[in-house]
Amino acid sequence: MRFPVPSLLGLYGVLSATAVSLVLGEGEGEVTGLETQDQPPHFLSVRPSLAKGYESEANIPTKKYFTESSFHHHYDGRFANSTLPEEKVIPYLSNLIQTYLETMNSIGAETWIMHGSLLSWWWNQKIFPWDNDLDVQISEPTIHFLADYYNFTDHHFEIPGVEGGRTYLLEINPNYVVKSTKDRLNVIDGRWIDKSSGLFIDITAVRPDDDKRKRGYPEALMCKDRHHYDESDIFPLRDSYYEDVPVKIPYAYAALLAEEYGAASMTKTDFQGHHFSDESKIWEKYSRKMKRILRRAWRGDDLPKRSGTEPLIRMDDV
Ligand SMILES: *[C@@H]1O[C@H](CO)[C@@H](O)[C@H](O)[C@H]1NC(C)=O
Ligand SMILES: *[C@@H]1O[C@H](CO)[C@@H](O)[C@H](O)[C@H]1NC(C)=O
Question: Which InterPro entries match (predicted)?
Answer without folding.
Answer: FKTN/MNN4/W02B3.4-1 (IPR009644), LicD/FKTN/FKRP_NTP_transf (IPR007074)
